[in-house]
Amino acid sequence: MKIKKKHLTKKKIREAQKSWGEGVVAIGKAFVDNQNYKLLAEEFIKKHYGYAEGVVLFKPTLASIEQFRDTFEKALSYFVAGNSDYQEDQGFAIRPWVKVRFQNVGIITKGNHAVAMGNYFFTDKNGDEIKVEYTFGYFENENNEIKINLHHSSIPYLK
């Protein structure tokens, strides 16, 4: 029996990015609407990040004390705040954002792994857009789900 090799494509990565952006917006909307945004954030992390499968290297944009979020709990705190162990967290996803768009500089695919780099733009309720630089690493798990195992983002350098 021949095992079919998994292959990520640029199209699949762009779809995963779209889903990620929509998830961030949905968390913020749930927060504003007094819905269970924390549960939605937990589901978002489980869907998009590979913490259940192994190591995730996550360096979020607005973190300087607890710079690296190598556990599910630390990632959740970054997205929705409320964890007294991580007092710097303001809840990135509950700002709220109304739109997220990716602008890829490049996507490299190799088998069931991929890396994407570029800028993504977060639009707030006032229509103001913030540009953030990112590098995401992706893999396709045994259930053919695309997960993030590397997430580094930062505000562009200003002189």
Characterise this structure:
This protein has 159 residues and is α+β, with helices and mostly antiparallel strands. It has one domain (10-154): Nuclear Transport Factor 2, Chain: A (Roll), CATH 3.10.450. It has three helices and five strands. The chain has helices at residues 10-32, 37-48, 72-80; strands at residues 57-59, 97-110, 113-124, 129-140, 146-154. The chain has a five-stranded mixed sheet, with helices on one face. A hairpin with a 5-residue loop joins strand 4 (129-140) and strand 5. The radius of gyration is 16 Å and the shape is globular. The termini are far apart. It comes from Mariniphaga anaerophila. This is Phosphoribosyl-AMP cyclohydrolase.
Number of strands: 5
Residue ranges: pLDDT <50 for 5 or more in a row?
none
Largest sheet, if any? 5 strands, mixed
- The CATH topology turns out to be Nuclear Transport Factor 2, Chain: A
SS summary, helix count: 3
Structural category is alpha+beta
Order of helices and strands: HHEHEEEE
Summarize the amount of helix as a percent range.
25-40%
Q: Please indicate the percent range of residues in DSSP E strands (runs of 2 or more).
A: 25-35%
CATH class: Alpha Beta
Task: Give, in spatial order, the strands making up the sheet with the most strands.
Answer: 1-5-4-3-2
Mean pLDDT figure:
93
Task: Report the CATH architecture.
Answer: Roll
Number of domains: 1
Shape: globular
* Termini Cα gap: 59 Å
- Alpha carbon gyration radius: 16 Å
Protein name: Phosphoribosyl-AMP cyclohydrolase
InterPro entries: MICAH-like (IPR016878)
